[in-house]
Give the backbone structure.
Amino acid sequence: MHAPQIGTVAHRTRSVTRRDIELFTQMTGDRNPVHHDEDLARRSRFGGVVVQGGVTSGLLNALVAEQLPGPGSVFLEVAWRFLAPVRPGDVITARATVVEARDDKPVTHLATSVTNQDGDTVLDGTAVVWRDPAVASAAGGPPHPTH
């Protein structure tokens, strides 16, 4: 298995819905009123309902696991800053760029971000990812970045 090349980029886009909030709440138990109570959320600093940060960062989970580095990848470390709220109806795009790839281990360092439909960065940071060689090999080898 070859290490991803420095500068390789992948991205993934999806629309965020109220159903995402419901599913994340069901899965985690996060019942913060800023995610559910329209009236209270409108009076908050957010000015309305926002999705949980896990929904936003979850798109990076999918990107890493499916595209870059690809199947068998798991996060070893993340450092993410949530810079702006994401709301139901937003279209978000996760992006990962390889900034370092070890030759001695299947470990990749990524610059990561999530932007909304207006191009505003809503999440920014880094991630260190390990890719299981057996899974990567069974899944067809090298990553499938978008460019």
About this structure: Helices lie at 18-28, 33-36, 38-43, 53-66, 133-138.
